Automatic annotation (TrEMBL):
Residues 1-23 form the signal peptide. It comes from the Bacteria. This is DUF1254 domain-containing protein. Transmembrane segments: none annotated. Residues 118-228 form the DUF1254 domain. Gene3D superfamilies: Domain of unknown function DUF1214, C-terminal domain, Domain of unknown function DUF1254, VPA0735-like domain. Residues 378-483 form the DUF1214 domain. Keywords: Signal. The keyword Signal applies.
Length: 500
């Protein structure tokens, strides 16, 4: 047995000398009394979390507290990473209710820079029409989607795709009727519906209008209907709400507020089979389904620290993606943003870290947002470093050259976001992106130089995206209806070059 152990350790460049506790008990005749837990070194065992003291194998009071606190803090950090997509949607739903005063069948129209300022990594180019509905309150819901250039869909509150509609859905942009069902709700088997069943009571329902014709967009919006299936014979009008300058934020709350939001949404939703171990981890921290969330001082302190370390960890995973295949063009800084299947099931496991890197900085995941072949849908690439490998700095100036003939049939855009908020960079200019739907100055070869920085270069205002001094930032490159040249990598986007 020892020969095998030594061989295995040698294969990974280690020896038993690195494990004195193992070395003490190795070989024939080893006595359990030589264990460091029975006969610890003088002064106790020094570990990465502090000094542990055992007497005859039993921990003293300080060691017990230290190890339990460490255990529960670890669980809080992991639970934060696990809960990111759920808390994100729950917070947004609460903002709809408390800031905008929506009912369960209202939709909110986000159109202007200010409207979208609270959305994680929003698209600046197209309007959003969004709702977060509780099917437990409404019963099954019907969506009457008119024909037109739309991209949208429904997701459950874990931000798993339930189904697309519009150009990327079964209606293919020709319009259709969709029936949304929650857990345990009976399918009425009515004809003429595309049935979408959610695993959670609350759902995210939203779409973007892709048409460049304002009149066509307005007509499409006027025809959109959302109503309870029970009222299908006389459907009420759908109320459209606009932010109208009201300040709001859909970002995950921080500190104990994160856990309050999590506890509330877990109470309202069925426990997913895959998540039962996480529910067990939360119990010592005061989050128990069927019981009020009333953490004591110890639990509150650990949860506060867990939220802090959890967010810090999520940000590191986000900006330093350590996943195979994350970089799109070899030798470039641009990386894929959605690195998981939209149902979050991977080969042999469920996405966790991959999921956290996306939902820390974004919301929503639909099939049409993660296509890997030409056709209707979108491609998202991100960048947070310049060509030299330095983090993007809002006080510096950068140039991004967009080569001619961008392989996007509908449009392309480059959008800048604040690293801290993961939303638009809030400047008086109220400009977040530049793209093919803007009037841009082109070079003689058809390429376009975009500028990013706190001030517009002389004579280049039309091609400029403002950043903020003292703030880190990152960018998304979006292609709508990507073409074959993109996936064949015949067209290559350069890195951002620092020019000042």
């Amino acid at each position: 047995m020892m020969t095998v152990s030594r061989r295995l350790l040698a294969q990974i460049g280690l020896s038993l000398a690195a494990f004195p506790a193992v070395a003490q008990t190795a070989g024939s005749g080893a006595s359990p009394k030589d264990s460091p837990f029975v006969a610890p070194p003088a002064g106790g065992l020094d570990t990465s979390i502090g000094r542990l003291r055992f007497a005859r194998g039993y921990p003293d009071d300080a060691t017990t507290k230290l190890l339990f606190d460490n255990l529960d803090l670890q669980r809080a950090v992991q639970a934060y990473i696990w809960a990111l997509p759920l808390v994100s949607f729950a917070e947004w739903q609460d903002q709809h209710r408390t800031v905008f005063g929506v009912s369960e069948t209202d939709m909110v129209v986000y159109e202007s820079f200010r409207d979208k300022l609270g959305i994680l990594t929003a698209n600046s180019t197209t309007p959003y029409i969004l709702g977060l509905h509780d099917l437990a309150r409404t019963g099954p819901l019907v969506i009457d989607l008119p024909a037109g250039e739309t991209a949208g869909g429904v997701g459950d509150f874990w931000q798993r795709s339930v189904g697309d509609y519009g150009q990327g859905g079964p209606d293919r942009g020709q319009g259709g009727r969709y029936l949304l069902l929650g857990p345990g709700q009976d399918d009425p088997q009515s004809t003429g519906y595309h049935v979408l069943r959610s695993s959670t009571n609350s759902v995210f329902n939203g779409f973007r209008i892709l048409s460049t014709d304002p009149a066509a967009g307005a007509a499409l919006l006027a025809q959109y209907r959302l109503y309870p299936y029970a009222q299908r014979n006389q459907p009420p009008p759908t109320r459209l709400i606009r932010p109208e300058g009201r300040a709001w934020s859909g970002t995950q709350p921080r500190g104990i507020a994160f856990w309050k939001r999590l506890a509330a949404v877990l109470e309202a939703e069925p426990v997913q089979e895959r998540d039962r171990f996480f529910m067990a981890m939360l119990r010592p921290l005061g989050i128990r389904k069927g019981e009020p969330f009333q953490p004591d001082a110890r639990q509150s302190a650990l949860l506060e620290q867990g939220a802090l370390l959890g967010e810090a960890t999520a940000r590191v995973m986000d900006v330093e993606k350590r996943f195979p295949g994350a970089v799109f063009w070899e030798g470039r800084r641009w990386h894929w943003l959605m690195l998981f299947n939209v149902n979050q099931r991977q080969d042999g496991y469920d996405a966790l870290d991959e999921r956290a890197t996306w939902f820390y900085e974004a919301v929503g995941a639909a099939e049409s947002m993660a296509i890997r072949q030409p056709g209707p849908g979108q491609v998202y690439l991100g960048v947070n470093k310049d060509a030299a490998g330095d983090w993007l700095d809002g006080g510096r100036h950068y140039r991004l050259r967009i080569p001619a003939n961008v392989p996007a049939r509908q449009f392309w855009s480059v959008t800048a976001y604040d690293l801290e908020t993961r939303c638009f960079i809030d400047t008086p200019h109220e400009r977040a992106d530049r793209g093919s739907r803007n009037t841009l100055v082109k070079n003689a070869d058809g390429s376009i130089d975009l500028s990013f920085g706190p001030r517009a270069p002389s004579g280049q205002d039309s091609n400029w995206v403002p950043t903020a001094e003292g703030r880190g930032w990152f960018a998304y490159f979006r292609l709508y209806y990507p073409e074959a040249a993109f996936f064949a990598k015949n067209w290559v986007l350069p890195d951002l070059e620092r020019v000042g």
